[in-house]
Design goal:
The radius of gyration is 21 Å and the shape is globular. The protein has one domain. The protein is mainly alpha-helical.
C-alpha cells in the first residue's frame, strides 16, 4: 500500500481525487492514514495554559554568542479544520461499524482493525508482529510480514467493496 507523508495532505485533510469516482483499496488506505494524521494534530484535552509554567514574558536575552540557538524549539502542527475532523470521524465510523468481529469476514484475523490502524500510524511490520506475538497462537493467524500485508490489502479491498455497495460517495474536494 502506498505510504503517505504528512506534507502530502493539506491542512483540511484532503487527499488526491479518486480515479474513476468510486472507492478502491488505495483510497481507503490513504483515508486511514489521513485520519491518523488528523488525530495526531488534535490538541490534547488536558493541555491548558498555566501561568505557573510560564518561564518569562519576554524571551531571554543571550548573554554570550554561544547561547544563540541553544534552545531547541518545536512547533506543533496547526489544529485540523472541521472538514478534516469530519473525514477522520467517517474513517473511525468505518472502523467501528465494519471491522468488528460480527461484521468482518471470518477469514480476517480478529485484530485486523488494529493492524490497519497500526500501519496507518506508520508502524513497521516488525513492531506489529512483536505486538501480536504476546497473543495466543489461535488468535494471531498468520503472524508474518507477508500474510499481514495480504490481510491489510484484502481488508482495504473489502472495505472499498462495502462502501461502493452501500453507495457511499468518496467525500473529497
Amino acid at each position: 500500500m502506498p505510504r503517505l507523508r504528512r506534507d502530502e495532505i493539506d491542512f483540511d485533510g484532503f487527499l488526491p481525487r479518486p480515479k474513476g469516482g468510486g472507492w478502491d483499496q488505495e483510497l481507503v488506505s490513504l483515508r486511514f492514514q489521513s485520519a491518523f494524521i488528523t488525530l495526531r494534530r488534535l490538541p490534547a484535552h488536558d493541555a491548558k495554559f498555566a501561568l505557573d509554567k510560564l518561564r518569562a514574558v519576554w524571551p531571554d536575552v543571550p548573554r554570550r554568542w554561544t547561547e544563540y540557538g541553544a534552545v531547541k524549539v518545536s512547533a506543533r502542527p496547526p489544529v485540523p479544520t472541521a472538514r478534516a475532523i469530519t473525514l477522520m470521524q467517517e474513517v473511525l465510523d468505518w472502523y467501528v461499524t465494519h471491522l468488528t468481529p460480527e461484521n468482518r469476514p471470518e477469514a480476517f484475523p480478529a485484530d485486523i482493525g488494529a493492524i490497519c490502524w497500526a500501519r496507518a500510524a506508520g508502524l513497521k511490520w516488525k513492531m506489529i508482529i512483536a505486538m501480536r506475538s504476546t497473543k495466543p497462537k489461535s488468535e494471531r493467524r498468520g503472524n508474518n510480514r507477508v500474510s499481514l500485508a495480504f490481510y491489510e490489502k484484502e481488508t482495504y479491498r473489502w472495505l472499498a467493496e462495502v462502501l461502493n455497495d452501500l453507495g457511499v460517495e468518496p467525500r473529497m474536494p
